[in-house]
Amino acid sequence: MAVVLLGVTGCVAAYKACEVLRGLQGLGLDVRVVMTAHAEQFVGPVTFEALSRHPVYVNPFERNGGAEMPHVHWATDADLLLVAPATANTLGKFAHGIADDALSTLYLATQAPVIVAPAMNVAMWQHPAVKANIEVLRARGVSVVEPGTGYLACGAIGEGRLAEVSEIVAAAAARLGAKSDLAGLMVLVTAGPTREPIDPMRFISNRSSGRMGYRLAEAARDRGAQVVLVSGPTALDAPPGIERVCVTTAEEMYREVEARAGAAQVVIMAAAVSDYRPAEASPQKLKKSAGPRRLDLVENPDILKRLGEGKGSRVLVGFAAETQDLFAQAQRKLVEKHLDLIVANDVSQPGVGFEGETNAAVLIAADGHAVEIPLCSKRVLAERIWDRVAVLLGRTTQESRA
Ligand code: CTP
Questions:
Q1: For this structure, is 154 an active site residue?
Q2: In the chain, is it the N or the C terminus that has fewer CB atoms within a 10 Å radius of its CB?
Q3: Is pLDDT at 318 greater than 70 in this prediction?
């Protein structure tokens, strides 16, 4: 039975850790709880002891007469460390290697994958110090279940509320289930926008943040694939264990994808490629004194369509971000580009598509099989997309991993 260390830290959402614990047990996992002293102010250890049927680990200096030190053997036993809720304080300690309590010591002592589900006041969540700590943790391979938006305990409305329990449990299941169903595969994922220069200072681009493609790349890595990520300009760090190729324009992306697609068994085009570019980029800054002007645009290569024309046995996945006629537009692209699967997003819906950490989609396969994925984190959607790809590759018949 896989062992999950559930870290509980001091915030109002600590009571939701009981539901997380129950959800994890529902998956057949053995859950052991590690609390911070502040968390004890919100929920007593007796509750977690009764639910988990294990002693709760709070104080690394408490003597129990035995020679065993929980931070060593719990750390080695663990298949996953999940911290839910994770306060700004604990995230800061993890990011900076401070080990002054049981949980932060376990974080340093374990080799297991780590997931954090932050919860805090909106101003704290948006503070540059917290954002920087989150980026440090991500770059180290820690998965982050992003907080949701809603009423916060402090009375404010905004981002910072602990993610839904089901989402946290799904993230844990995905990370634990992320064993090896893509092992031995070479996959290519594109992400982010492209920039088409107008002059040395200006360009045409779009609102893509690159997050969906990055989450797809990370999920494939965690499931054993060798991953190449061809990325347009984004603010995201290169995920560890993934070869990232940075490009700027659609033509550069086309060249890099063409050069690498031959070795890939799966290509997922999550990038928002500019369909057009200025016919000529001015070598000098354009001056407004020249008066009103028109921009002549020429068409960029349709990377996915060209891949589809010489497809072979490769699995090709595209995205369709639409504001109307979602299903019909996605179907058209699926056929025109010779795709195996298309991920259709209605980007007019709140929380869907560009920029945020959440998404919702319909996954439509070439045989007409369609699955609707309701609003979830981009990581969870990424897992569901790979589930479908694994089925298309004949690697599994299982659909419901996440
Ligand atoms: N795509 C691509 N090259 C382009 C444009 C799009 O590879 N020049 C890929 C995208 O990465 C995406 C899919 O094609 O996976 C659909 O992109 P989208 O912009 O939704 O569709 P278009 O083909 O541009 O069609 P339309 O402008 O009618 O929406």
A1: yes
A2: N
A3: yes
